[in-house]
């Protein structure tokens, strides 16, 4: 491994999730990306929730920004990082496995500005894809409290130096996170919405202005696309109008059967009908004549043959 040694991912209770130990000062960005590819899905998200002096904070970053997040941890003076899960609960779903640990401890060993061990406690919720790779899909770490531990040997060494003791009494992190990491999370608030522009620029080699124009045009298309769906309704309404028209004609025919004059007109119109006005695929079209039967009902029918001739049935 280049720059960092990794302990494989483990889901057992009381065991470390994974551990990173920095061996040299700098690590290649490609290595960090390979690390994120091994443990995180392509659409993974990492969320950190904690409370600072100015109020609660919540930062969510995507897959492309996750490698840089772990890199900033070591840039802030950390030489060792690992997570300890105690009494975690695992739940299985159709396509994912969720690990919920209410007693998770993120342990970071700092080499500068002074030798300090920081234990950050909180709740960690992980969602893994249920496949052969078992990579992380969502990572949510809620920080509750943290402790900074300084060895007694260092305190005894500088017992006679008040300035050093005062420096040792100051915290080197905020809620267990270094200033490098906090500044990067603040920067991610701006970088995360720009990931689409950066990806398009990298893929199509477009200028920033062209990338912005293309993204805005696609977003505009998505905004105007949903109202186009209700346009299908008038088509159904037209069908309903046709059905209602036919039903109306049938009902009007029934009403006209009560009058003798309308009977004669309808009968004369029926005699002048031609097959060319009908649908060609129909072999025969039956219509009820307007001649009443013995009991006054419409008992006669007229059949239109493909030849265009009418044939009465009794």
Automatic annotation (TrEMBL):
Residues 244-265 have a biased composition (Low complexity). Residues 226-265, 295-314 are annotated as: Disordered. This is LIM domain binding 2. It comes from Podarcis muralis (Wall lizard). The gene is LDB2.
